[in-house]
Amino acid sequence: MSAAPLVIGLISDTHGQVRADVHRALAGVAFILHAGDVCGDEVLMELDLIAPTIAVRGNCDDPDLPRLARQIERVERGVRIHVSHGHELGAPTVDRLLAAYDADVIVYGHTHLPLIARANDRLVVNPGAAGPRRFDIVPSVARLTIGADGEVDVEVVELAH
Prior knowledge:
about 160 residues, mainly beta, Purple Acid Phosphatase, chain A, domain 2, six-stranded mixed sheet, five-stranded mixed sheet, globular
């Protein structure tokens, strides 16, 4: 019997707000990876109600917030995942991210634009911005699924706005 898929919630750029719809969009995930611009420990506490949350520091975050790491590197079912905000590369692009980080899955934020890009066997994901609506972009999060055999899939989930 094969193991059930592992589903990981991806969120970024909350900027101090957790929309009620995030609870629906990330229901049932094993844990949440936040790609920065959290803007308050209250956001992390609210996300923890959905699933355990691990977050990185974005350019708008308080550098003294203890729960925020510079980056996250972890392996799930043999899949190497890197999470950072992206601002450390200036203007993050798929090519810059792939050159800077050698993980199988690279998760970033900063641009507020949802993006899924595949390059050979690697995946670059921006879940979009889940916080206050800016730049006329629909708020979103993403769900990353890792199958029992290490296959990776991701979907962007738009939030009510």
